[in-house]
Write a structure and sequence with these properties.
Low-confidence stretches: none
CATH superfamily of the largest domain: P-loop containing nucleotide triphosphate hydrolases
Number of domains: 3
Largest sheet: 5 strands, parallel
Mean pLDDT: 90
Strand order of the largest sheet: 2-3-4-1-5
CATH topology of the largest domain: Rossmann fold
Distance between the termini: 52 Å
Order of helices and strands: HEHHEHHEHEHEHEHHEHHHHHHHH
CATH class of the largest domain: Alpha Beta
Number of strands: 7
Shape: globular
Number of helices: 18
Strand content: 5-15%
């Protein structure tokens, strides 16, 4: 089931009483929440629309709400987030589990319970989880891959009558790590900047979109592996000058080298490797591009030297820039 399917059910007044929403794309999950909220007219939302975070408030209020009929309206919507009781580590009391099962098996006409499990790993052995999975309409909103993010970006630009240079698109994807949600956060200021010309340039992306720390670490690792000593030292110095803590910067650099070693050991598609490592496939793609250029032995040597630099940072009162300069000379 897709968001468009949900929209069709709302338009046709063909709404089931239970939905289970899963996924890892924040922007799409927020869109789903707004879509479910739209079922209730704005004037009735205070009485017939509610949201509960199980990890913060438990389940009692949500059960009380979903077992009460709609208040002067056709529907009541109750959204439940962080349902950790559906995972292997979560648990409800016997009375609460019985009450929740009753809610699912004997719903009040007009009431909709929407469970947002997001990226929780549900325990399918549990009776409660099995019941939810059997009864619910399921909406899965996985993280978009690089191609899908690029297509979505192009669609948004065309809707607004904007153009964007190819190198600008690539840089935007790099700076947001091809995250659809992060791209959406950055796009409004680019559109505002290019309001007159209707064309977003690479320079605009460079000026307005701050690189994520992972992208900065990738750039620094690339300079290190290329042996561009002066550029690497200058970049390191600039990052520290701009407020990046040396230990954190070293950890990011170490993480980038570790990622290269991990990716080198994995086969399969970028998506499969990304899932195995718990990272966005775009980072796998960039790592594989680097590995085609740099010998694995050099990557391993760099990892060990950066690890040694971290140990020295933690155990000795040595200037971090001096340590990095020494590392670059030795590497």
């Amino acid at each position: 089931m897709t968001l468009q399917d949900i929209k069709g059910q709302i338009d046709n007044q063909a709404l089931p009483d239970l939905y289970l929403v899963t996924g890892e794309e924040p922007a799409l999950l927020q869109k789903a929440k707004r879509l479910f909220a739209s079922i209730i007219p704005e004037a009735d939302q205070e009485m017939n629309d509610a949201s509960y975070d199980f990890s913060a408030v438990g389940l009692d209020d949500a059960i009380a709400d979903i077992t009460a009929p709609p208040f002067f309206g056709d529907h009541r919507v109750v959204r439940l987030t962080n349902p950790t009781f559906l995972t292997a580590t979560g648990k409800l009391s016997d009375s609460l589990e019985k009450a929740f099962l009753s809610v699912i098996e004997h719903p009040i006409p007009g009431n909709l319970l929407v469970i947002f499990a997001n990226d929780l790993k549900l325990d399918k052995r549990k009776k409660l989880t099995k019941t939810v999975l059997a009864k619910a309409e399921r909406l899965d909103l996985p993280r978009l891959n690089e191609r899908q993010v690029g297509q979505a970006l192009q669609g948004l630009l065309e809707q607004r009558g904007f153009r964007m240079a190819a190198d600008a698109k690539q840089e935007l994807l790099l700076r947001t790590q091809a995250s659809y949600s992060k791209m959406l956060q950055e796009l409004p200021k680019l559109l505002a900047y290019a309001a007159d010309s209707k064309e977003i340039t690479r320079q605009a992306v460079d000026d307005l979109v701050i690189k994520e720390s992972t992208a900065q670490a990738f750039d620094l690792a690339d300079l290190v592996l290329k042996g561009e000593r002066e550029a690497a030292i200058r970049t390191y110095h600039d990052l520290v000058k701009n407020g990046e803590a040396p230990l954190r910067l070293n950890a990011l650099l170490l993480g980038q080298f570790r990622l290269l070693l991990q990716v080198a050991s994995l086969s399969g598609s970028d998506a499969e490797a990304g899932k195995a490592l718990g990272i966005h496939p775009f980072r796998v793609k960039l790592a594989r591009q680097s590995l085609r250029t740099y010998p694995l032995g050099k990557v391993r040597d760099g990892f060990l030297k950066i690890l040694d630099m971290e140990i020295q940072m933690k155990s000795k009162a040595v200037d971090s820039l001096f340590l990095f300069e020494t590392f670059m000379v030795n590497f």
